[in-house]
Amino acid sequence: MTDFLAHPGLVLIAGGLLLGLLAGTARKIAIVVLPLLVLGLVWQVPDGSNWQLSYLDYTLSPLEGSKLSRLFATIFALMAAAGGLFALSQSSRLEMSAAFVYAGSAIGVTLAGDLLSVFVFWELMAIGSTLVLWSQSGHRAVTAARRYLMIHLLGGVILFAGITGHIVQTGSVAFTPFSLGGAPDSPAHWLILIGFLINAGAPPLSAWLPDAYPEASWSGTVFLSAFTTKTAVYVLIRGFAGTECLIWIGLFMVFYGIVYALLENDMRRILAYSIINQVGFMIAGIGIGTEMALNGAAAHAFTHIIYKGLLLMSAGSVLLMTGRRKCSELGGLFHTMPFTTICGSIGALAISAFPLTSGFVSKSMISQAAADGHLQLVWLLLTAASAGVFLHAGIKFPWFVFFQKDSGLRPQEPPASMRWAMFLFAFLCIALGVWPELLYRLLPYPTDYQAYSAAHVLTQLQLLLFSGLAFFVMLPFLKRTLTITLDTDWLWRKLMPAMAAIGMRLLAHLQTTLHAQTQSLGSALMAWVTRALGQDAPMAGTWSTRGMALWVLLLLLGYLLLYYL
Prior knowledge:
Layout: H1 8-18, H2 24-42, E1 48-49, E2 53-55, E3 58-60, E4 64-65, H3 67-86, H4 93-110, H5 115-134, H6 139-170, H7 186-200, H8 208-212, H9 220-224, H10 228-240, H11 245-263, H12 267-288, H13 291-322, H14 338-351, H15 358-372, H16 376-402, H17 416-434, H18 437-440, H19 454-473, H20 475-478, H21 490-533, H22 545-564
Antiparallel strand pairs: 1-4, 2-3
Helix pairs in contact: 1-2, 1-4, 2-3, 3-4, 3-13, 3-17, 4-5, 4-10, 5-6, 6-7, 7-10, 10-12, 10-13, 11-12, 11-16, 12-13, 12-15, 12-16, 13-14, 13-15, 13-17, 14-16, 14-17, 15-16, 15-17, 16-19
């Protein structure tokens, strides 16, 4: 183990646990400074294995550096700092401690060089994220946290089974690329892939994400949006790059997120569905598997954390200052919340890949990789999906929340710490769009990609213009009512409670029937006993001495026969 080399993830986890001991100004300083300290530690980790531990005859590497791990650990630490700044006025003491444990565990996964370390940090992430949800008081949040925990425990069990099978078959705990075909341990690899995809929000369990994230507090959702799904993207890049089925899983997620976000009324559920949509782009890039595609998936994960965090910060500000979360109850907020409106609009432009924003320089790499690989259908679907992103997140969210009809609400801007956090991420959205080389230098593979070619810029602007026109043409059909849209979460929101109610009614009927039958049988038995042994029954009469002696003799003979036979 390298001397004096601290593990950034463990430092953030320990700091999160100790955060509860601080109060006042010291606590606020620690919330902002600790993630920045961790960010510095991330850049002190050299490439290669830095910690070596022995466990059950296996060599573990819980601290291993690489360009890919450094990229993800950097954005995770930066997100923890910005999220902490945004949440400085949060009254819940549990939420920030849980959020730092959550973020530190995500950094731990990115720096893990073996599967056992990955699994330990993976499960710590599930605990931390569940506590972020649980810290929000209210029945809805607690219930959502329970459902969230069940899904992630299921994913953890599947992942652990896959890791165990892989170790048994290969005798190695090293985190290396996996094969899904032809290898004797490929069933274990399929289990590992399924465990990773559950955290990525892939079908058929995608509904856990929009079911849980919007139930967190106005600051908790910002943290939840950053780590779980992007950690899944990281491990998929390391373990399953070039797996063709991921292309089609990613494309399904892309359109799934668009459709349900267009149907949704809750502003944070809109943004939750768009997380699935954006992660779909990344997973499709991982499935393509070329260096350009993997660079694009990694770059898009980096930029996505920033612009999605900015969008959810603006939504959280609206929720805190108005107490409203449904688009049908909002509108006209630009009058008194101009700063929040501008920041939310910058995030909306970035997620739509508008030129001079961060989303433009990252998402285009994935589409270019599809074109370079002569995957015309994939390129066409990704291009069409880009138009859908502008519809649901680029226009729908800011239009219905900040503009459209005047709701009569006149909230003030959120506290200064929240505005500074939004300003930081808005600045990064534009800075990375204007100077993409800052991002490209961090990518795992060398690249000379030029995002700002005339053809690409014009094509994207035409696509966005067409999407904008389509939105306003279809505006009467996009106005939502006070409803919630169900997809596969119908299984546990509707079907399972209905089946439980039916089961309880059947059990009650069975208990009533058994009680009646038991009473009837008991009455019949008592009547027989009364007839056979009652005062006037034959067995209750006087027996002669001769008869009793005869019965005793017969019983003794029977005993002797049983004894000798």
